[in-house]
Fold this protein.
Amino acid sequence: MTKCATIDRNLNPCRGIATNGKFCKIHSYMIEYTDKMVEDAKPCGTCHKTHYMGEYTTCEGCRKRGEDNRIKKKEVVIKCVKEGCSFKKSEENDYCGKHQLCVFINETEELGLKNCKNAVRGCRAQLGHNYSYSACEDCLEKEREKDHKRRGVPIKETISEKQCSVCSKMFTKEMFQGLHGETQSCTNCREANKRSDEKRDKEHVNELARFNSSKPERKIVKNAWKEANYEKVAMYCIQHRKKMIEEDIDKYHSHNAETIKKWRDSHPEKVQEINEQKNKNMNYSYTNYKYSASLKQLMFEISKEEYLLLVVSPCNYCGIIQEKGFNGIDRLNSSIGYVKNNCVSCCAMCNYMKGCLNKDIFIQRVEHIATYNKFVEGKLYPNAFQDYNSVYSSYITSAKNKKLSFKINKCVFMIITNRPCYMCGKKSTTEHQNGLDRIDSSIGYLENNVYSCCGNCNFMKKNYSYKRIIDKCVMIYNTTKINKDTLLQNEITNVENEVTNEITNVENEVPKEKRTIIKGHKLNPEEIKHNAKIRKQKQRDLLKERYGNEEYNKMRAKEIAENRKKRTNDSN
């Protein structure tokens, strides 16, 4: 009996019996292949059947199916026909909920009419093109009534006050003294009219102002006035900011975002300095932990005082304190939130290496790696390393996403990954398949830059060098070995205390509900976006309230002036 002439999905010769002289029943579709095509055939990256694919990694059938699925997916959602809108159209018409006004505008245009300018405010009047006003008669009448109501009130006058004929506000009579005697309008309205008059020849006035402002003597006078009256200068800025917030807070935020982006692009070294200062700030770090806990919907019961005391203590695993003067915190049990008995001091590297592992499993893996590489005389814990499966196509996709070169073919991949893990010695089996680890994480997947590595060690190593990981494992082993007896006694004491506390709590008070993390418990992107929207709206309301408070504005202007004066004195 003749064996099939091709290979199976594992790159081994096919064990099937040839039924048509050359190929088995499974590979009978290759009967029309040439010898060269049979020699170059390889398993498809999707269906795993052996095909001749040329330069592709998937067969023609899988590529065609993928293209059909992509086209079908694009045809599912019908977008709003409004230009530039990416929302889904409503069931009633071709527009989304946001642009339903366009339906009325289109109907009006089809009738050869035009809509009232207040259509955005709910008016549905349809006007002829011969109609000379932009608003309908009803809207104009409402505007007239509103204007008459404001202006039609008889001018009031008392012994000390008088009503302005323009703004209808009451002021002291000193506000109505002009160059030629008493006036009917207040000083504010007259000044506003002056500014309007000046704008009528704006280009010429601005040209003169620019010329005069550029004079050295003028600059000296202006700068001297600013320094002497900086509280007024600050108040001008605050009032301008208040006006922008009241008129269009979205435009205000967009303008600020654009301004600060330009500043960041122009001062990268200062941005780096600010980020480094934030990284060294314990208060900023505490805020980050609270925010991270809220995204994961975990309890956060660590007060700032407890946090500050915890992070300045040595790392619970390796015993160091980071160069910046404090560590982070690690949850011993990752299924529980940030509660006092579950949090320990932890440096950044130990935190990355541990991930969401149980404390005992993490320490066993560390001791195993250090012992296997003959840096310590400890114990081996092969059962602490779970099984993973590595797929060749996944590495290609990952390298492409990271924009890294991938110069390893599947045959070399299988040869390397069948070797034991170079860090812990775990071997590939039918239940487990090792993967690849880049020795130098700054370059791509080259044959001289990769070793066989199990998923456990790959996650722990991350982008650290082999030497740095081994050194850290040795440090953790030595620290835990020295403190082993003390830790054991502390754990026994803690268990006894917990049991005592639980009994006391049951007897004296109702226990609080504790929320644990489960799969899917973390906020999804839509929930995060919704919460951010609520938070931003609260910030906007607070901003409006703050700048609407004149007492705050005065206090803030005074504070800015005092800070500037202090900086000026310090520099001198």
Summary: The CA atoms of residues 389 and 559 lie 62 Å apart.
